TrEMBL record:
Keyword Phosphoprotein: yes
Lineage summary: Bacteria, Pseudomonadati, Pseudomonadota, Betaproteobacteria, Burkholderiales
Post-translational modification: Phosphorylated by CheA. Phosphorylation of the N-terminal regulatory domain activates the methylesterase activity.
Pfam families xref list: CheB_methylest, Response_reg
Active site: S171, H197, D293
Top class in the EC scheme: hydrolase
GO cellular component entries: cytoplasm
UniProt protein name: Protein-glutamate methylesterase/protein-glutamine glutaminase
Keyword Phosphoprotein: yes
Gene: cheB
């Protein structure tokens, strides 16, 4: 049975191009198009779509307002169609917080040809959304400190905090999973490196958003930063992020080599660098995401002495990446997202002081 898609966008051109891309796929079909959320409400009832593509900024009702109501009254997989601007990226991150599965960006120039160029990516995101696990989320205010989050206790051991690293990889559903993970981190947690599949222009807004919410410092990696306790670095959308050594210090390194597993940044690239540079001094975490990026790299980490965790199926939006890592024998423990931060820190408290820097 084909995936039924409803397109909601105020641009007639975008509606036409999206319809063409989706109807060209053998496993999906457009069951309706709407110029605004008001018109979309009736079409949802009439067509019962499997996936909704939703423009961020529209007349009559803002896309975010509509999304919030939709996820409360009739939860369903939604893929946002966003402008590649700072404002567009901030709104899109809010949409993911409200429950959207993923997003695609409109090209800045030549929308018609640009959208067609990554038609395969759009189709993949629709397929992923159709398989996603949609669960009601706690809707947090758009800004503000994480006063209500359950911060885990301080590490109490400066040696562990300075000698150990936490290495995280994620994709679809990962922006919220990463946020939930980092919100529990105490201010003296080990340094953290993160690769989240996300295009250039969005990773900086993502890092700024996390930095405003978390007790630790969160930044988009620029390359060459010393990795210190209480600091997290996110791979920029234009480059692979790697762990490197500079004398006695761990530092970030960026690389603009070709995509790996169709991604740049790639989780495998980060994990492989952690295996090489940190070994038993790293803890690996693989979160929700589609595909197999990170599985082989996490296996290499395990073989180098790293202890690895995976998010469980029940708490994943998409269980692809954790499932692949588990299947190849790369993980030691599997847990629900809300429990993973404590599992990681408990392991470090118990075993962290036993390993010396390699």
């Amino acid at each position: 049975m084909k995936i039924k898609v409803l397109i909601v966008d105020d641009s007639a051109l975008i509606r036409s191009v999206m319809r063409e891309i989706i109807n060209d796929q053998p496993d999906m079909e457009v069951v309706g198009v709407a110029p605004d959320p008001i018109a979309a409400r009736d079409l949802i009832k009439q067509t019962n779509p499997d996936v909704l593509t939703l423009d961020v900024e529209m007349p009559r009702m803002d896309g975010l307002d509509f999304l919030e109501r939709l996820m409360r009254l009739r939860p369903m997989p939604v893929v946002m169609v966003s402008s590649l601007t700072e404002r567009g990226s901030e709104i899109t991150l809010r949409a993911l917080e409200l429950g959207a599965v993923d997003f695609v960006t409109k090209p800045k120039i030549s929308i018609q040809s640009g959208m067609r160029e990554y038609g395969e990516m759009i189709a993949d995101k629709v397929r992923t959304a159709a398989r996603a696990r949609i669960t009601p989320r706690r809707i947090a205010p758009p800004q503000g400190a994480a006063a209500g989050s359950a911060e885990l206790p301080s590490m109490r051991n400066p040696l562990i905090s300075s000698e150990k690293l936490i290495i995280i990889g994620a994709s679809t559903g990962g922006t919220e999973a990463i946020k939930d993970f980092l919100l529990q981190m105490p201010s003296d947690c080990p340094g953290i490196l993160i690769t989240q599949h996300m295009p250039e222009g969005f990773t900086r807004s993502f890092a700024k958003r996390l930095d405003s919410l978390c007790r630790i410092s969160v930044n988009e990696a620029a390359g060459g930063e010393r990795i210190l306790p209480g600091h997290a670095f996110i791979a920029p959308g234009h480059s692979h992020l790697l762990l490197a050594r500079s004398g006695a210090n761990y530092v970030t390194k960026l690389d603009q080599g070709p995509p790996v597993n169709r991604h740049r940044p790639s989780v495998d690239v980060l994990f492989n660098s952690a295996a090489e540079c940190a070994g038993k001094n790293a803890v690996g975490v693989i979160l929700t995401g589609m595909g197999k990026d990170g599985a082989q790299g996490m296996l290499n980490m395990r073989q180098a002495g790293t202890y690895n965790f995976a998010q469980d199926e029940a708490s994943c939006v998409v269980f692809g990446m954790p499932r692949e890592a588990i299947a190849v024998g790369a993980t030691h423990e599997v847990g629900a997202l809300e429990k993973l931060p404590k599992m990681v820190l408990d392991y470090l408290h118990t075993h962290g002081s036993r390993a010396l820097r390699v």
